[in-house]
Amino acid sequence: MPRRGPAARRGRQRKSTRVTMQPGSGHVDSTDSDGLGNLGPTVGRLAATVERLRQQIREAQEAADGRGVLELARGVLVERLHCSPAEAARHLDSLAARAGQTPLELATEIINQAARDRVTEATQAFLSHAVRDVAAPPGGAGGGLAVAARLRTTESAAMAAADAQAAAEALLAHALQPLSAVAVAVWSAGADASLTLAGAAGFGPEETTRWRYVPPGIATPARTALLERRLVWYPSLKQEGLPSIGHRASAADGRVAIPAGTGGRIIGVLEVCWPGPPPEQSARLERQLESLAEVCAHTLETRPLGNTDPRTGNRELTELIELADGLHDSVMVLLPHHDAQGVLADFRIHHLNSHFVDLAGRPAGMISGTLLLESYPLAAAQDGLLEKIERVHATGEPFHAERVTLTSLVEHVPLTAVADLSITRHGDAVLLVCRIEDETARLASLLQHAQRLGRIGGFEENIVTGEITWNSQLFELYGLPAITSPPPLTALPAHAHPDDEPAIGRFLRTVLHHHQPSAAAFRLRRSDEVVRHLRIVAEPVLDDAGHLLAVRGAYQDVSAQHWTEVALAATRDQLAHTEQQSAERNRLALQLQRAIMPSARGPIDAGGLQMAVRYRPAEHEHLVGGDWYEATVLPSGQILLGVGDVAGHGIDAATGMVVLRNALRGLATTGAGPAQLLGWLNLVANHLTEHVTATALCALYDPATRTLRWARAGHLAPVMIRHGEAFTLPMPQGMMLGALDEGEYEEEAITLAEGDVLLMYTDGLVERRDGSLQDSLAHLLTTARRPAADLETRLDNLLTYSNADTDDDTCIVGIHLPAPDRQRQAQTGGGIHH
Predict the structure, then answer these.
(1) Most-buried pick from 152, 332, 563, 719 (CB within 10 A)?
(2) How far apart are CA 211 and CA 247, in angstroms?
(3) Burial of 309 from C-beta contacts in 10 A (0-12 / 13-18 / 19+)
């Protein structure tokens, strides 16, 4: 509110008028401190006047909209009662008053009884339940009219429209706005399946200008309804991703597209738009929309976009027949044939051109004028030809296909032929052009394609006349223009490589002098300095006396085959060399791995703790990996335990394993804990190796306190067996070695009890291609909890019953803290032994 100065406020000072309604008084009290008088009764009278005028306007609109329906119903009464139009009008008013209906509703029922059309069918369900639009929005067409009256009113308004644009406006105002629709578009379908915007309502002028024409091939809701010949429903056009008129506006997102046509021929599409999803799809709503689409079809046929001159149809048909007679292929002119209900049932063969050929050998007089299925019954089932014709007639989209198999019955014997088809629509007629493939032409075409694919050029040389004939492929092989005179066979050595002259000489002597077929391979030197590897095959043609008349033969370009063989030989040599190098590297890697980690070591007893290790290498030498283990007593008396897995296979993985394992052993002598050792080992992997990445598990056991501390670097957690139960220990945080320059590693600790068994292993023990890691760990725990005579037997059982199938290296380190009596027995055996 803008602020005013004191002078302005003094000059515009007014006292407010307060209007209050006294409860129960039925009148308005007004206090006017301005001296303008009592305005309460005046405002009420003005409001009543405005409402009365609005009501009169609505009644006038309803009367104007329904005038066509009323006039049609009065005409029905005049014809049936044989009375005057004035008597029919009075009779209609009297019947409506006695029935408790408006005259427009009664007029609709009279028309529905007299006319059995799509509008009648669409409104029967509504009339049977006395559906009334008692909640029609103000200003909507028909006010409180029944649905049937609204449809008849819409039909009357559309029929009276001057063009398709006026019809679209009438559809939106009278029938679609009560259904909450906000816009409508009427599309006219062209002969090439293009779409032209014939009328639109509810869209801006920019949208109607931009969407005036949609060329063939653009996917829109209207084209989908045209090609599929059915009503299509789109809850959200934006989610479907289809463009259409008004698709950028949020007020027109829901769409329903209905094909508009009669007698099986679609001439347009009605597209209705809602601000959100369309109303719930139902059979009654679909019938109502289909009836509106038929009104659009009638408008498109009879208004400016339609055919207004009845003579034009005959002229178009005459022109089509003249076009068919001018073609050299077999041509049919087909007209649609409808049954008693107006449904497209077949097509009548209206005309056959002079070049028409029947598959069964019948003359054209026996076929012309018959129905298509009468003369060609298999067109509906086996060939599917009738379906293609119906689609072209309905949508206008032409159909072209090559090498289509057609079947005809001759005395119940099916005869087949291969033909090229072309089906197009011209007005209401369909032109079927059929080019039946001739057997000679087909074989010649096959031979030409075979020569082209095989790079074969044929020739024939008449020895008597000297005439030489080459085909086009042979000119291409020689690199000569087609107008050049072909050289004779005797000039072949001049075009060949000098080293190939002996082979060419033998070939010419065999054919020209010994009169026997022969073949030769040589290198052709062309004028453009391109060298081609060719193979020539020729045979002589002799007369009855054995004299040479001609030579026939063919050249084949085998350059690609020659160079392929050369490349293949070089590849075989290189592959053999690579295999030899790979085998040598695998052998060295396997020797290095077995030298550092033998597959089995005897039991180790240190500080009352029994230790055992197992190493199982991969079965295939090329899968030699980087799995390693460590179990040794440090100078401090603590026991170092560890396993690890270097990523990859081969010599690189084996050398990376050696670096990490030796580094761990050296760093462990510093007395650092497992977490610190893995941190240092990560630095080694990042800076002292060639980009090695690995997982590792490191543990230190103190015999004095029976405490086991461990840390992990992306490795699987160890398994503890205690009192006959097997379980995995907690996994401290720690990323794999070599992933980052600086890694943080956590540490866990546990005190071993008498009889405890601890297992550390690599993933080769549990990894499977077709199962999850959880299932493999569950299987491992089941195997581990089985009773075993000693630690060695337990480790052997783990390898024996492992369900792993990746053929990867496997390392296992196991420790066992025996009971005191067993410790004494082990010590009696003396010290640490292997």
Answers:
(1) 152
(2) 11
(3) exposed
Residue closest to 791 by CA, chosen among 592, 597, 511, 600: 600
Question: Rounded distance, CA 567 to CA 625, Å?
Answer: 34
Domains of the chain: which residue ranges? Answer: 56-160, 181-308, 315-437, 443-557, 597-828
If one looks up domain 597-828 in CATH, what number appears?
Answer: 3.60.40.10
**Edge-to-edge strand list for the sheet holding 399-410:** 344-352, 330-338, 429-436, 413-426, 399-410
Contact present, 781 and 775 (Cβ < 8 Å): no
CA distance 686 to 287: 75
Beta-bridge partners for 695 = 645
What CATH architecture is 443-557? 2-Layer Sandwich (3.30)
pLDDT tens sequence across 157-193: 665 566 788 888 888 888 888 888 999 999 998 877 7
**Region of residue 755 (left: phi > 0; alpha: psi -120 to 50; beta: else):** left
d(CA 608, CA 593): 30
- Across 436-467, b (16+ Cβ under 10 Å) vs e yields eeeeeeeeeeeeeeebeeebbbbbebebeeee
pLDDT at 815 over 60: yes
Same fold, 181-308 and 597-828: no
Structure tokens at 11: 């000059």
- Provide the 10 A C-beta neighbour count for residue 312: 11
644 near 657, Cβ under 8 Å?
A: yes
Residue carrying the six token digits 């299509």: 232
> Does domain 315-437 bear CATH number 3.30.450.20?
yes
**Residue 605 · residue 833 · CB < 8 Å:** yes
- Cα 240 to Cα 128, 490, 509, 587, distances in angstroms: 37, 72, 75, 61
CATH value of 181-308 in 3.30.1330.30, 3.30.450.40, 1.10.3720.10, 3.40.50.2300: 3.30.450.40
pTM to 2 decimal places? 0.38
What letter does residue 764 receive in the DSSP assignment? G
